[in-house]
Write a structure and sequence with these properties.
heterodimer, A: 113 residues, B: mainly beta
Chain lengths: 113, 111
């Protein structure tokens, strides 16, 4: 157990739907990062939050949004889902920035049918 | 911009043999470098990291990596591979607020 909790582990949904992925960072970590992992794109950085504030955006689609709450957990919202959104979505946390490396959760596998 | 290249998509190694995974990076300043391992269906686990100082870094599970600035490389090594080392390995570079990951190298261990 890495200390980073992601729920749900698996999610199957239909095209056009909206889903919410949840991440609880390791105790004491203020930063949360979201990554998408797919066979064709590899690990793609989506977004970084630090202590409730958005710090950096990567290749995140406009249909996707995220937030970090006062208790530091984070949610990634994916809407108007397409087949191509099927992927593993990872959350990682760190104490501050990325400098000391991340601790990853076990991921949420999203399947859009 | 920072980038990471892992030239080998797939490596097959016999159990007990040595393993070396290549990683080349592009970064304007002194990089922070990492190796992660991902077992099937799992998240990524940090093996080791380099920030500064000794260019030979020891990590968990018997892995080590060597930073060579002149070659912009950070290759991962293990002297004797175990069947449990079969996994995908990712090199990553920072800092810049996020880590940039390579495409990964799949390691298969044969008896």
């Amino acid at each position: 157990d890495s200390g980073v909790t992601q729920t749900p582990k698996h999610l199957i949904t239909a095209t056009g739907q909206r889903v919410t992925l949840r991440c609880s960072p390791r105790s004491g970590d203020l930063s949360v990062y979201w990554y998408q992992q797919s066979l064709d794109q590899g690990l793609q950085f989506l977004i970084h939050y630090y202590n409730g504030e958005e710090r950096a955006k990567g290749n995140i689609l406009e249909r996707f949004s995220a937030q970090q709450f006062p208790d530091l957990h984070s949610e990634l919202n994916l809407s108007s889902l397409e087949l191509g959104d099927s992927a593993l979505y990872f959350c990682a946390s760190s104490v501050g920035g990325a400098d000391y490396g991340y601790t990853f959760g076990s991921g949420t596998r999203l399947t859009v049918v | 911009a920072q980038s990471v290249t892992q030239p080998d998509i797939h490596i097959t190694v016999s159990e007990g043999a040595s393993l070396e995974l290549r990683c080349n990076y592009s970064y304007g300043a002194t990089p922070y470098l990492f190796w992660y391992v991902q077992s099937p269906g799992q998240g990524l686990q940090l093996l080791l990291k380099y920030f500064s100082g000794d260019t030979l870094v020891q990590g968990i599970k018997g892995f080590e990596a060597e930073f060579k600035r002149s070659q912009s490389s950070f290759n991962l090594r293990k002297p004797s591979v175990h069947w449990s080392d079969a996994a995908e390995y990712f090199c990553a570079v920072g800092p810049s607020g996020k880590l940039q990951f390579g495409a990964g190298t799949q390691v298969v261990v044969t008896p």
